[in-house]
Model the fold of this input.
Amino acid sequence: MTFSDDIMQQTKAWPFEQARALVKRLMIMEKRGTPHPATQGKGAVVFETGYGPSGLPHIGTFGEVVRTTMVRKAFEVLTDGKIPTKLICVSDDMDGMRKIPPTVPNPDGLVEYMQKPLTVIPDPFGTHDSYGAHMNSRLCAFLDSFGFDYEFHSATAHYQNGDYDEMLLRVAEKFDAIMAVMLPTLREERQASYSPFLPISPTTGRVLYVPMKHVNAQTGEITFDDEDGAEVTMPVTGGRCKLQWKPDFGMRWAALGVDFEMFGKDHQANAPIYSRICKILGKEPPVQYVYELFLDDKGEKISKSKGNGISVEQWLSYGTPESLSLFMYQKPKTAKRLYFDMIPKATDEYFQHLGAYADQEDKTKISNPVWYIHAGNPPADVPPISFALLLNLVAASNASDKEILWGFIKREVKGASPENNPVLDNLCEYAVRYYEDFVKPNKSYRAPNDKERAALEDLQTNLGQPEAKSMRASELQTLIFSVGKEHEFENLRDWFKALYEVLLGQSQGPRFGSFVAIYGVEETYALIAEALAGKLA
Done:
């Protein structure tokens, strides 16, 4: 669906804020007399994401692409689909290999290729022409698995095919201006040897970090000393050299006509450098959006080398792809813990947003994450049972597979079946797996104190009454609530917390009345009896 112009202009949803900034950029270009080609029926507005192929695509890769896709969708709706767009994913595969990943086969065999471009290093996996090609293939397979609409771009291909030649010649022409930007950002010892150009040694094939003895702006040639000490003069074009990563960032924006790019906070200090270099090369920098980095369970920054985070594959073992997209949508400028305990919360929040969407007004829908997760067309399939409730059901029933859960579900939800409720069926599978790996090892039952014991005995008596068997979830919740009040729990949260700690070995959960309705009144009666008899703690 689309929204009225007023709603799109007023919403504070961050993808539309970025889309509006991008529209403003196009208007400024128009006023300056240099209209964007896409507004003239030529080309497209370019959204870019970057990828370092020295390692496997990871959860940050997913986050960057899915968030950029959300902005792209907002822009397309904001401009009524009249301006073509495309998303490009650029792999920096011409970078020299600085360290050998420990996960590759026969890592010792790669030692001789250190500092050579990734696209000339043999593929240790034996499936592609080079290590870079292998990792690029993994990236594309990763993105394709989520159905992203993108174009893959290889930095090596751009350097070698001449796509960057015009800008590389301009870097030679503007060499002094670029050095004036870069040198103040470097340590004194680094300043002496720094050059934005990194030539590829004609003798060893390695990427060289050497100072330039001469830069000829007229011929587009550089002069430097090769590894053997011989002086070499060669063109900067045709893939004979690449740029240092900061100048490369700005040059890439200029060469590929990038209009929008987001990156992590670790790039924030360098963003003005990228922009200044892009301007020196005669192009307008893109709209930029900085997002916060993720934290692990201890509050420390997630690092690929440390392996202290959670992978996409791990998340998708326990939660839906949509729950991961929701996590990426929410508060991108806030540092968030990215760990396994976030999965149940994100899963249930996703379905809560999805369930609310159909009845919301447009001004609320535009802030509903599911609009962005589903590119403006959210589905209507909302499971009748929450993920948190399923986890508690697994805990109480000791279910080892989802078929056991379905036996309880069918009792409460009329007509429910794996065939009729495939989304719920998937959740059951996730719940069993998550419980076994994360909940069960950490369960800690406790015995009730005297006040709690009296209340549990009272609740058990009530559940033993004939009329209790026909109560619905809301009626059972009212009953449980009333028992807590009668036993004078000053804060009823303490009463419900006691139920979970004593009966399920955890401190929180969903509405207990819903749990009783699905698990069964008689089964809950027996569970209370076990707890009172000291068989759980």
In short: The longest helix spans residues 59-78. The chain has four domains: 5-195+243-293, 295-373, 387-442, 450-532.
